Amino acid sequence: MITWQDFEKIDIRCGTVIEVNDFPNARKPAYRLTIDFGGLGIKHSSAQVTKHYNKESLLFKQVVAVVNFPVKQIANFFSECLVLGVYDENNEVVLLQPERTVGNGQKIG
Q: What angle is formed at CA 16 by the lines to CA 9 and CA 105, rounded to 5 degrees?
């Protein structure tokens, strides 16, 4: 079990995907996302979501992400946040997103 103080250390924010590119150097199929987090700025993330989403469907979609993990190098790319999703019955990611549009950078609580 974690404490409330542990949970408060995780900075989860909403952002809008503003660019989507293929990521051919990833070991598993993935996209390179550029996400606008408002006042927090622009961050990049690698996302293994190619089964349920194409590049066009991701563009301008709001997503939920952890924004305070250390930068992680994946092949030749530096991922600055972790986009969150739910694994479906086939272990493929379905993205978490707000049920209505919210401001970029809004904190999840």
A: 35
* 47-97 per-position pLDDT tens digit: 999 999 999 999 999 999 999 999 999 999 999 999 999 999 999 999 999
What sign results for the dihedral spanned by CA atoms 83, 85, 90, 91?
Answer: positive
**Cβ-contact 35, 44 below 8 angstroms:** yes
pLDDT interval class at 109 (50, 70, 90): confident
**Which residue bears the tokens 């924010």?**
13
What average pLDDT does range 6-22 have in this prediction? 97
Other residues' Cβ atoms within 10 Å of the Cβ of residue 46: 24
Asked whether 71 and 79 are in contact (CB, 8 A), the reply is yes
Closest Cα partner for 84 from 56, 108, 57, 55?
A: 108
The residue behind tokens 């019955």 is 89
- Residue 66 pairs with which residues in a beta bridge? 12, 82
